[in-house]
Write a structure and sequence with these properties.
By secondary structure, the protein is mostly beta strands. The chain is about 5% helix and about 45% strand. The chain has two helices and 28 strands. The protein has an eight-stranded antiparallel sheet, with helices on one face. Strand 5 and strand 6 form a beta hairpin. The termini are far apart. The N terminus is likely disordered.
């Protein structure tokens, strides 16, 4: 008996059960009964009834091997994996997690089964899906006095990945409604990158070239949770899409005007894999309203570890005049102090760890014995502020840096 000679018959591999033997594509009957055959390629399940014979031939499901590996958590909650049906290729594979086809999203380790269930093939393999907590900084803001020259409020940020949409804002008049004294009356917002100035905006309802600030900017602000700007206010805003590189967002006036300003950077596309990995702000610090205040919001499923530095003396090596000689840095959550540092070598984070981490993220080294401040801290999702001021109410230019640690 040679079924492969009949039209549409699959190639035979072996006899799984029954009174028969197989050699190549030829089955030799050795007795009466039902013979179950295994095949090597797709085809319908057949019962072979040949005239004059009493044997019933049933083509069974062939065992297809399944490879299960490379399971990792994706940001959208769906696991990506290297699951493949390797024999034969292209068969559908179903993943189940504790009996459910819905992928888990919470951090943890989950047993996973990959199954082929096809009319002619079956197979399965087991593995483990490991989901690690993932969080990111979705908002960064800086409030400080902005004045011409070295006292301008300049925010720097470094982007890893391409095509990230960001909302940048320079608030001045809007701060008066929140009790801020002496706000900058008419901020000018300028975003610059590796090739120079990218975009500028003076009044948020006046569109810059290629920027639909009035409609799109307002809608984006509402979507990311930013407080609204009043109609006809002199606050500034820009919606930009940036690629990998280092950028600055400056809020200032080209004349002698000074006042308290707020620079904000919002992640307008959290689903994008591109992310901002470093924020910094440099300005002149003075007592009371001249304190440099940085705000940040963390979103995600677990804590985010950050390197935070308040640099004063360390700026002198870069030619910055009148640096803050002894900066003190305090981290607040809901108005309560949760961490602080005065001198970077004497804080809760060992100096060797701070130096090693700074080198890993590309931060310039702090000199031994300097009065710069630094700490490494792990923060759960939420909103925080970092205050940098001069010890004993001293005045000078300082830099605050926040690095997103992997």
């Amino acid at each position: 008996l040679n079924p492969s000679a009949s039209s549409g018959m699959p190639t035979l591999l072996t006899v799984l059960s029954g009174p028969a033997t197989v050699s190549g594509n030829t089955v030799t009957l050795t007795g009466a009964g039902t013979v179950v055959l295994e095949v090597s390629q797709p085809g319908d399940i057949h019962t072979f009834n040949y005239a004059g014979l009493t044997q019933s031939f049933v083509v069974a499901k062939a065992a297809a091997s399944v490879a299960l590996g490379g399971l990792a958590h994706a940001y959208d909650g769906s696991p990506k994996s290297a699951v493949a049906a390797t024999t034969p290729a292209g068969l559908p594979v179903t993943l189940t997690y504790a009996g459910s086809t819905s992928a888990p999203s919470a951090a943890g380790a989950y047993a996973v089964q990959a199954t082929i269930d096809h009319p002619n093939y079956n197979g399965s393999a087991t593995g483990t899906l490991v989901i690690t907590a993932s969080s990111s900084i979705v908002n960064f803001s800086v409030r400080a006095r902005s004045a011409p020259g070295d006292a301008s409020l300049i925010v720097g940020f470094v982007l890893a990945g391409n095509g990230k949409e960001l909302l940048a804002r320079g608030a001045g008049p809007a701060l008066a409604a929140y009790g801020v004294a002496n706000p900058l009356p008419d901020p000018l917002l300028t975003i610059a990158g590796p090739a120079g100035v990218i975009a500028t905006n003076d009044d948020w309802q006046t569109s810059a070239p290629g920027q639909g600030n009035q409609s799109l900017g307002a809608a984006t602000a509402a979507r990311v949770g930013a407080f609204p700007f009043a109609n006809d206010s002199k606050d500034a805003a820009l919606l930009v899409i940036l690629n990998q590189g280092a950028y600055t967002a400056a809020v200032q006036r080209p004349d002698a005007t000074s006042g308290i300003a707020l620079t904000e950077i919002y992640d307008a596309d959290p689903a994008s894999t591109a992310r901002v990995i470093n924020f910094s702000a440099r300005t002149n610090i003075s007592p009371s309203e001249g304190t440099l205040i940085v705000g940040l919001s963390i979103s995600g499923s677990g804590p985010k570890t950050l390197l935070i530095r308040g640099v004063g003396p360390g700026l002198a090596a870069f030619g910055v005049p009148a640096v803050l000689t002894d900066p003190r840095m305090v981290v607040y959550s809901a108005g309560a102090e949760i961490a602080s540092n005065d001198n970077w070598e004497t804080g809760t984070t060992p100096a060797t760890q701070l130096a090693t981490t700074a080198a890993q993220v590309g931060a310039f080294a702090l000199q031994p014995g300097s009065k710069d401040s630094a700490l490494i801290i792990s923060l759960p999702p939420g909103s925080y502020t970092v205050h940098v001021s001069g010890l004993a109410e001293t005045t000078g230019v300082a830099l605050v840096e926040i690095y997103d640690l992997p």
